[in-house]
């Protein structure tokens, strides 16, 4: 079992950065982003654009949303796995989540936010700007910025909101099983209740101390360019036990490398561990490859030293495999599905 340490994630200040602006600090912040993603696969971002009172409103609204009767919550269905209401899993009984399907760029995310916040809450639009800044910096760091426009146009957003009940005991209980995200970039925003833990490359669970202003930015398995897969993963798993369609591994040592022309990004395992009585609410903005777009490594990133690792694949089709019983048990689902 990995022992938990309190190690701080790198903190990166984006308050002076705009997607379309004159950014004297761009190069400096970009190199911090690259370094953090190589080492941890995630970082804490200070972005400054989402005022504290809006964040408070978000968690108040989530409290009310999850307080609805179960019959009402399960009306939020989706054909895609993990996009509608998720909850009542025996292995993670504290966890519930609701997603907004196909949150195509801003509009549908806003339709969700309009339901929750009829008077407007621009938070998620701001978070999609942060997502795009990070992806632009990543592509530039890899020297493949010529794919930027295509890359941006080949993705959707999914907004998912989560509740983890407090276990109401003195024990620590699993809130969400260890996993890597399967999308491109995840931005997490949460209330003050601790619980998120990230596995470092040397196998230590690191707890995240939430701060009222910051977000966690995390790399998913399929950071991709248009027709471009930038991902290399080499898993070594030890001791994987699981049940009921959910990865249930408290210690899941892996190497998940992305070896690119000029760097390696890491998509980290993470989980939620709950203590005490208070509920933890979080919201995640997930950028995901659109269905129907074939993901294929760019020729610039394939050479003798870095041979092609994955056959071109459609991410939505991949998810259909990932969410089967076999896929859920597979520590290197992407390799099984489309490895060369
Ligand atoms: O609640 C959190 O902070 C983490 C959620 C998460 O890891 C996920 O939804 O993929
Ligand atoms: Fe996650």
Automatic annotation (TrEMBL):
The keyword Repressor does not apply. InterPro entries: DIOX_N, IPNS-like_FE2OG_OXY, IPNS-like_sf, Iron_ascorbate_oxido_reductase, Oxoglu/Fe-dep_dioxygenase_dom. Signal peptide: none annotated. It comes from the Eukaryota. Keywords: Iron, Metal-binding, Oxidoreductase. Gene3D superfamilies: B-lactam Antibiotic, Isopenicillin N Synthase, Chain. The keyword Oxidoreductase applies. One of its GO terms (molecular function) is metal ion binding. PROSITE patterns: FE2OG_OXY (PS51471). Residues 154-289 form the Fe2OG dioxygenase domain. Belongs to the iron/ascorbate-dependent oxidoreductase family. This is Fe2OG dioxygenase domain-containing protein. The lineage of its organism: Eukaryota, Viridiplantae, Streptophyta, Embryophyta, Tracheophyta.
């Amino acid at each position: 079992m990995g022992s938990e340490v309190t190690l701080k994630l790198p903190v990166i200040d984006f308050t002076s950065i705009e997607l379309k602006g004159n950014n004297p600090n761009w190069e400096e912040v970009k190199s911090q982003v690259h370094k953090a993603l190589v080492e941890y696969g995630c970082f804490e971002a200070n972005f400054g654009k989402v005022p504290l009172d809006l964040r408070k409103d978000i968690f108040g609204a989530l409290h009310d949303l999850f307080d609805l009767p179960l019959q009402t919550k399960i009306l939020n269905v989706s054909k895609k796995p993990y996009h509608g209401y998720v909850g009542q899993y025996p292995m993670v009984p504290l966890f519930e989540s609701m997603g907004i399907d196909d949150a195509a760029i801003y509009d549908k995310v806003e339709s969700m936010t309009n339901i929750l916040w009829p008077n407007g809450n621009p938070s998620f639009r701001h978070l999609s700007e942060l997502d795009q800044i990070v992806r632009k910096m990543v592509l530039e760091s890899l020297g493949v910025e010529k794919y930027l426009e295509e890359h941006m146009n080949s993705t959707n957003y999914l907004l998912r909101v989560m509740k983890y009940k407090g276990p109401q005991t003195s024990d620590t209980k699993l809130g969400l099983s260890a996993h890597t995200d399967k999308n491109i970039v995840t931005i997490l925003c949460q209330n003050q209740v601790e619980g998120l833990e990230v596995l470092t490359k040397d196998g230590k669970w690191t707890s995240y101390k939430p701060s009222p202003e910051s977000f966690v930015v995390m790399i998913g398995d399929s950071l991709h360019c248009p027709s471009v897969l930038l991902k290399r993963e080499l898993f070594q798993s030890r001791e994987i036990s699981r049940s009921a369609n959910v990865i249930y591994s408290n210690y899941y040592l892996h190497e998940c490398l992305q070896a690119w022309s000029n760097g390696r990004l890491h998509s980290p395992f993470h989980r939620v561990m709950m203590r005490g009585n208070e509920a933890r609410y979080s919201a995640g903005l997930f950028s995901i490859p659109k269905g129907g777009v074939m993901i294929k490594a760019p020729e610039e990133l394939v050479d003798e030293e870095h041979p092609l690792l994955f056959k071109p694949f459609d991410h939505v089709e991949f998810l259909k495999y990932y969410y089967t019983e076999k896929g859920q048990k597979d520590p290197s689902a992407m390799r099984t599905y489309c490895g060369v």
